[in-house]
Structures are given as C-alpha cells and as structure tokens.
Amino acid sequence: MAGFSWYLSEGFQVIIEKSKEDKCSLNDVQLRFLCPDDLEEVRALCRDWFPIEYPQSWYEDITSSERFFALAAVYKSQIIGLIVAEIKPYLKLNAEDRGILSRWFASKDTLVAYILSLGVVRSYRRSGVATMLLDVLIKHLAGPVVQLPHEHRVKAIFLHVLTTNNEAIHFYEKRRFRLHSFLPYYYSIKGRCKDGFTYVYYVNGGHAPWGIYDYVKYVARAAWSGGGLYPWIWGKLRTALTIAWHR
Asked: Any idea where the N-acetyltransferase domain is (predicted)?
C-alpha cells in the first residue's frame, strides 16, 4: 500500500468510473474518522454518488456513533472518499445474511462487518483511494495487532451490491471478495425494484457453511497430517473399540 498520513478528528456500494482528470498522490491523502461537523459534506457526497436516499438519522449515526467504522480520505482539506462499515453481532443479522458464516460461528461473541458505503469523488477515482480505504478497514479488523473493542471476533466482512454495478463487482472480486448469494428485488430505487448480490470477505478464520466436499477435504487433511490415512482410521477405530469394551 502506498504511504499516507493519518490523523484523528475530535469529538454500497462502490462508485468507480474511468476519469481523464488529474489524479492525486496517495502520499498527500490524509485519513481521519468522521465527526458530527462532517454531516452536511458527507450527505452532499452520498447524494451525488448513490441512487439510494439515506435518512437524516443515518448521517447522524455514521458521523457520531462508535458502532460504525466511518473513515474519510481527505485531500486539500476536503473529503474525497469515505468508507462506512457497521460492526454488528452475527446473530442479529437479517435472515438473508445469516448464511454467510458456518454454524460453527453461531455465537454471541461472533461479529461481522457490513460495508454500507464506499465512494470516491469523481475527479479522484482510479487513483487508489477506494483500495486504500478498504485495505485500512480490513487491516483494522484482521491485522496482527488486536484492535479493541472488536479484537479478532469479526469473522466476515460483507456487502450488498446491485447486480448491474459491474465496476463495483469487479472491484470487490479483484480484492478477493466472494459472491455468496443472489438477492432478487433487494433494492427499491425510485419506486422500482432492483436485484442485488451479497459479497463476502472472510477474516480471522471465518468461512462459509461447508458442503460435503469441504468435510471430506478436512477429514483427509487431518488424517494425512497425523501420519497417513490408515493409521488415522485405525486410531479412531481402536478408540471406538476401547469405549465399547469398557461399556
């Protein structure tokens, strides 16, 4: 990742288009968390970027609540990009999103991160700003240093995207997000229903629900790591016979 400066303020979708305008250097981009004073500027940007109309309460929450990871990229004292993600318990997800993780993680301690918005001002797109913001989020949630209060309990980062937003889909797939599910009529935009996709990036050992192939692969790997398939089978069989004998 290119170098950048970082400072803290007091107190869905990705929009990517080709641009022939001048680009900024990432070395001159500063990162800071959103604060209440950013509300009007952020609302103007989101109205320009996204087809969805967010309520006033949403802007108040992302600029003040600790529940959100709301990071801004600033260039020449102006916000040129931002990423907003909500950290929430896995068990409180909506039904359509509950299947992004294996049942092994169905615990009150498991957290997930939901990317609500990721956007960049038109004249600064294709400069690496969106990638930088996404990388910082991933590093915060899955880096080698424990990040309180989330620690390493976040097992997945996911998002919803319009099926017609090919640029965004390519952006996420290039960064190893996996297509998880198709969501028919998920969006309502200007009175019309639009289809969506769910994309997931797994962190901290999280993974999708396993199929038969995954279980077979796991058993085979465990067997061979223990010295070979036959010794492993014999060991399991001997344990079962011992238990049966003592009964």
From this structure: 29-215
Cα end-to-end span (Å), the chain: 61
The vertex-168 CA angle with 121 and 173, nearest 5°, equals 135
pLDDT in tens, 151-183: 789 999 999 999 999 999 999 999 999 999 999
180 labelled catalytic:
no
Specify whether 156 is located in the same domain as 220: no
Q: Which helix (H) or strand (E) holds 212?
A: helix 212-225
pLDDT in tens, 18-54: 344 456 788 899 999 999 999 999 999 999 998 888 9
pLDDT tens for each residue of 10-19: 334 444 333 4
Annotated catalytic residue: which of 75, 114, 187, 201?
Answer: 114
156 shares a domain with 56: yes
Q: Do the Cβ atoms of 101 and 208 come closer than 8 Å? A: yes
Is there a single domain that holds both residue 82 and residue 194? Answer: yes
pTM of the predicted protein model: 0.77
Within this chain, do residues 203 and 219 fall inside the same structural domain, yes or no?
Answer: no
- Domain enclosing residue 227, as ranges: 212-246
7 a catalytic residue: no
59, 160, 187, 202: which one is catalytic? 160
